[in-house]
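So, can you check what follows?
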Amino acid sequence: MSAVEKLTNMQLELLKLFPYNLPEKQLAEIKDILAQYFAKSATEEMDRLWDEYNWDAETMESWSKEHLRK
């Protein structure tokens, strides 16, 4: 397996940006866009789980009191 085959499709797409030396402002904007995208995706998945499992405020309160360390 070659190094290219070990990269994800996202990594391969981002590598296409490497020939460009972007100003720091543009780089910061791209980072922000990526952060917003992944935050939105995480929020949508959490909303889906809340609906699927009928979680509510009591669920969150219960979780906050759990001790998960062994």
